[in-house]
Amino acid sequence: MPPVVHHVSISVTDSEASARWYQLLLGEASLIRRSGPDWVRVRMQWESGLVIGATQHSATAVGDRFDHTRVGLDHLGLACSDESEVRAWAARMDELGIGHGPVEEVAYGWAVTARDPDGIAVEFFAPRD
C-alpha cells in the first residue's frame, strides 16, 4: 500500500503573501517559519491535517509566474465530499473576492479552480459516487 501524501511544498515569489492568501481561502492555520541560506518557508498546517509549505527561493525572479505546462506541479487538488461542497467553495471564493473558474461537471465529478498569487491552480474536487 502506498503512503499518503503528508505535505505539499510550493515555490513562490513571496512566502508571506502566499501564506496570507491560502489562509484567507482555507482558514487560519498554524504557522512555522524556517529559512536556509537561499530560501525562506512558511509551513501552514490546518486542523484537517493538510500541510502546505510556501517556499521563497532567492534565485526566483520577483515577476516569475507558475506555468503548468512545464515539468513539475500541474495543480493542487483538494478533496470535497460532493458537488454541494464544491459549490460552497465557489461561493466562499465569491464572498472573499477570490477569482475562480466556473464549477465544472465532468464524467467523474465536479471541480472549481482558483489561482494563488503566483498562478498555481488550486482545485476543489468531488468525485462521483
Distance between the termini: 23 Å
Order of neighbouring strands in the sheet with most strands: 1-4-3-2
Shape, please? globular
- Helix count equals 2
The mean pLDDT is 95
What is the number of beta strands?
8
Low-confidence stretches: none
Number of domains: 2
Name given to the CATH architecture of the largest domain: Roll
At the fourth CATH level, what is the homologous superfamily of the largest domain? 2,3-Dihydroxybiphenyl 1,2-Dioxygenase, domain 1
Assign a percent range to the helix content.
Answer: 10-25%
Describe the structure.
There is one protein chain. With 129 residues, this protein is an alpha/beta fold. The chain has 2 domains: 1-58, 2,3-Dihydroxybiphenyl 1,2-Dioxygenase, domain 1 (Roll); 75-129, 2,3-Dihydroxybiphenyl 1,2-Dioxygenase, domain 1, CATH 3.10.180.10. The protein is 20% helix and 36% strand. It has helices at residues 15-26, 83-96, and strands spanning 8-12, 30-36, 39-45, 51-57, 76-79, 104-106, 109-115, 121-127. The strands form 2 sheets. Strands 1-4-3-2 form a 4-stranded mixed sheet, with helices on one face. A 4-stranded mixed sheet has the order 5-8-7-6, covered by helices on one side. The protein is globular and about 45 Å long.
